[in-house]
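Private note to self, pasted from the team thread so I don't lose it. Backbone tokens:
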């Protein structure tokens, strides 16, 4: 009998209690990791949206600055291209290509519609994105020629 007791104590393996405890600890650790992963993905998604908004603002500010500094302009036949001319530097062309509106490294993506117009020298650029959001810039360039006012 003493020999049987010793053998039971020396048997390798886990008891049912040890197995249940390890499963409970593993389950809690898994829940914790999955919760942290979900939170990290949510924060990343919100960060991507806000950085996209900030980048669009930077691009629109650049467009606004280009328009205000221009001495002359020309709108493409389809109303999807804006050429800005300057006295002291090369012209800058903003245009729609595919689903983006861009110029010289600045780009707004997911653009489904572009309307560029000018009334009394005031240029309006309206961009429609795939989600229905509209981005709009209105500005007047520096006018050196009186004929620009008639546009």
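Design output:
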């Amino acid at each position: 009998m003493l020999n049987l007791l010793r053998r039971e104590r020396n048997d390798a393996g886990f008891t049912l209690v040890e197995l249940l405890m390890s499963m409970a600890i593993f389950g809690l650790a898994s829940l914790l990791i999955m919760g942290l992963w979900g939170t990290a993905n949510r924060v990343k998604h919100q960060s991507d949206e806000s950085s996209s908004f900030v980048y669009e603002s930077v691009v629109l500010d650049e467009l606004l600055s280009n328009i205000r500094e221009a001495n002359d302009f020309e709108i493409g036949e389809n109303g999807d291209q804006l050429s800005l001319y300057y006295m002291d530097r090369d012209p800058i062309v903003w245009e729609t290509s595919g689903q983006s509106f861009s110029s010289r490294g600045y780009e707004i993506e997911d653009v489904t519609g572009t309307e560029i117009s000018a009334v009394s020298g005031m240029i309006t650029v309206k961009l429609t994105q795939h989600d229905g959001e509209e981005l709009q810039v209105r500005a007047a360039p520096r006018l050196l020629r009186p004929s620009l006012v008639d546009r």
